[in-house]
Amino acid sequence: MKRLVTLTLALAMAVSLLAACGSKGESSNDASAPTAQATATPSPTPTPIPYTPDVLTGLEQTPGDPADGQRITAIMVNNISNTGRQNARPQRGLSEAGILIESKVEGGITRFCALYDDVSSIPEVGPLRSGRDQFFQLVLPWNALYYHDGESVFTTEFIRDYDYSDLNIGGKSYFGVETHPQVSHRDNRGRDVALEHTEFTSGEEIQQAIDKYGIDMSRDYTSTFFDFVPYYESARTLDDGEAADTVSIRHSSSYRTYFDYDSTANQYLMSMYSPADGSVSATVDENNNTQLGFTNLVVLFTEIADYPGDSKGIQKVEYAYGGVGYYFYGGKAEYIRWQKGGPLEALRLFTGDGTETSLKINPGKTYLAVVDLDEYDGFHYEGAGQQVEDTDFTANSYVDSEGAD
């Protein structure tokens, strides 16, 4: 009997333990019971990289840089080189321009338009020369201060048509257009040269003109003149480009510009042919005796011809249809296309593959040449013993401007 009671109690205890175990298991599966959950650590929001490029070079602007938000200043500079008293070389102030534009103006002669981003840092520049509309049309979309001495009648028409008198310094009063005289000084540099090759200006004098005429030098856009590779990214390399250690540009039989690539400085160093003595010599800035050097070379081909009925042979540059050209960087060449359209449209560069992909150029100073299509036979570049192959630059190869943004 005692044994039976013991067995009964043992069985009851076993049943009780089983029930307790079952109850605990059910409780652990109860959805209402609290469970431990992993706490996700939120990813930090990446801080955007501030992009503050210089409008002309794409280089980084430091905080407080006076060029930030300041209107571009474009100065016309003489480039005549001839016998006797007709000689403007060497020029002053060109080595400090962010962009230097060269194009044919009349009688085969070329002229420069030097672009600066900050009036206060503009050195002595010159000799000054008269304005031409092929340069004005390139800076018009950027609302640049256009500084020169005199201008062609065709330039005055542009000034009138686009109501640009307030930003046109040194023009002429044709067609009822008012103009602001420039502030400048004369210096014959101890040489017997004609008066038109002796006029210079400077940032201080330009500021005097700005103050005198109450010119607003602020700009309300942040875009850059070219589509630059951001300065915080690696420079673009032209891996598929042809070698281009030397570049030769013929603007006319008497005006030719040459560049030699300096791999140490990663710059193209500039030289020019002189019709005065038939020599080629380094293009130096008389202010500092430094040879002009550029990170980028952009060469654009288009139709250039005399303005109809003009007795002086002033040149009309065709921008409306765009065209083709070359971009040089790092000792390499890349075939490109370009587009401008109307005078108010900014110059745009594209890759040469026909996709209308914007061409990225590297930050730095740029030489921009606008060259007559008829002078293509005199254009070439060489590198590693190989000369450029001829390209068929015909009207059919132009970029179609219809439907452009």
Number of DSSP E strands: 24
Distance between the termini: 107 Å
Classification by helices and strands: alpha+beta
Q: Note poorly predicted spans.
A: 1-34, 387-405
Share in helix: 10-25%
Order of secondary-structure elements: HEEEHEHEEEHEEEEEEEEEEEEEEEEE
Features:
405 residues, globular, disordered C terminus, eleven-stranded mixed β-sheet, alpha+beta
Explain how this protein is built.
This protein has 405 residues and is an alpha+beta fold. The protein has 4 helices and 24 strands. The protein has helices at 2-28, 133-139, 153-161, 203-213, and strands at 73-77, 99-106, 109-116, 145-147, 168-169, 185-186, 199-200, 242-243, 246-250, 256-262, 267-274, 279-282, 284-285, 290-291, 293-294, 296-302, 304-306, 315-317, 323-329, 332-339, 348-351, 366-372, 380-383, 386-387. Strands 1, 2, 3, 4, 5, 8, 16, 19, 20, 21 and 22 form an 11-stranded mixed sheet that branches. Strands 9, 10, 11, 12, 15, 23 and 24 form a 7-stranded antiparallel sheet that branches. A hairpin with a 2-residue loop joins strand 2 and strand 3 (109-116). It is globular, with a radius of gyration of 34 Å. The termini are far apart. Residues 1-34 and 387-405 have low confidence and may be disordered.
